[in-house]
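User: Continuing from earlier, I have the next pair ready.

Assistant: Great, send them over.

User: Here they are, in order.

Assistant: Folding the first of the pair now:
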Amino acid sequence: MTIKSDAVPETKGTSDTGRALGELMTAFESFKETNDERLAALERRSADVLTEEKLGRINDAIDRQQNRLDRLTLKAGRPQLDGRRAGFDALDLEHRTAFDTYVRTGVEGNLRALEAKAMSAGSGVDGGFVVTPVIEDEIGRRLAAISPIRSIASVRPVSVGTFKKPYRTTGPAVGWVGETAARPQTNSPVLAELSFPTMELYAMPSATQMLLDDAAVDIDQWLVEEIELAFATQEGQAFVSGDGVSRPRGFLQVPTVAEASWVWGSLGYLVTGVSGNWAASNPSDVLVDLVYALKAGYRQNGSWVMNRKLQAAVRKFKDSAGNYLWQPPATADTRATLMGFPLVEAEDMPDVAANSLSIAFGDFRRGYLIVDRLGTRVLRDPYSAKPYVLFYTTKRVGGGVQDFDAIKLLKFGTA
């Protein structure tokens, strides 16, 4: 059945997640039909303003359905923090009970004694108490699901303030020799060091005392839900464009160089050939070039990273056979793809502008490292914003590029 309207009909008789996926697929079919009409009009040199507007509305509908699907998938994967998980022992239960008492009433005696007994690696002198392991695990899982770069990067828990990783700048001399030939002495490898300091990330959710007194409210669940989005938003910006001062260093803040002149310590880029725009003809060719700028060992695990506006633009591109390069997710728990590779929507990626580095492609699990220091802390403050109780929640996070050959960028410029 051909859809003549840009409205997206609802699919009946399925779960919320299945219905959202079905509506996304329907919207994309409508998008393809309308875009084909637009392209045909351009070929006839008779561009239709109404068709352009309709295409824009359908594009927005696809984005809304994708966001709805992501939210439903995330919600479906959230376990309740009720402590009934495997491995939840008596000490965990005691810690949870003491933490719950502290959050609700401010009584900290039992919690302080437990932390002293455990000698937690996350304990410090900056005030507050370490959250329970259940809460910390759940924060990590939710951040991995909603923080764009964290979901594809490598994550390493540490118990120190700075994580240092050695790498070889030159390897040992090697070669082929005959069975009886002399073996010359080889040179020793030269090692350098990458440093990933952890920085303090904080959120400050607030609650009324009435909410805290309500025994039906799951305090663990409430706290996680209050801080997850705040942490994910700040992380997303830092992992993309953070300057490394009081926050992680984003991959767009390392030196960049034209791919033909790439050297270790910088990220290579290709250019569109037009300042602040795509090439006038065959604009998608540069995306193919970007994929193959990455070595095969990285390419098999490659992901695209761009913002919503860029995704709307590449959604219109076709290959030489007339097939759309962008495809919706095949199932609710997968991503949309571009040229067969997963596409990650990161709103902190820059819009298209003169010489902007607006698209990244690479194996981020090998290319970007996120360092999480153990111990998320909460400090209860009932005084600063009476009658509300504030919960100053901190987490120490670092990040930076660890393999400069694993990520390539697309520059909207000429050189």
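And the other member of the pair:
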Amino acid sequence: MMRLESKRLILYPVGDRELRALIGEEKDPDLKQAYTEMLRGCTDDPDGRIWYTVWFMELKDSPGTIVGDFSFKGRSKNGMVELGYGLRAGFCGHGYMTEAVRAAVEWALSQKGVTSVEAETDAGNTASQRVLLRAGFTATGTVGAEGPRFVRTMNNRRKRHDP
């Protein structure tokens, strides 16, 4: 099984069975739809499923404790992947998301053909925007469907912003 590790987290992609379970358990219609689209991406492109599935964020010192998840929203032909993420209730404010985003983005940018990682945040979600800035992203100055867009490229891989 593929996995990434950071200081406090183990990050790993879930299989189709786990993704179906997430769809079945999800109450939020928008997330349910997103998970359904992820599963479709996994089944339509089994060799590239890593770019569609959910990745769990598990605490190293508490096996089985999932603090949140993230996913890539496919991979474009121009080498861009988009990142989406969220924390479970009770785990905000501990730096877990920044740690996970840094590890995920470093891994993604090390993959053949990936030149940039982008993310959008709700305009009022300053906590998410801080996560992106701390993980080395820069604001693009554009607004997408979900809000302001941020990008991290091969050129700014080593840059980190710690406001």
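Worth noting for the second one:
Helices lie at 16-25, 29-44, 96-109, 126-134. The two ends are 35 Å apart (CA to CA).
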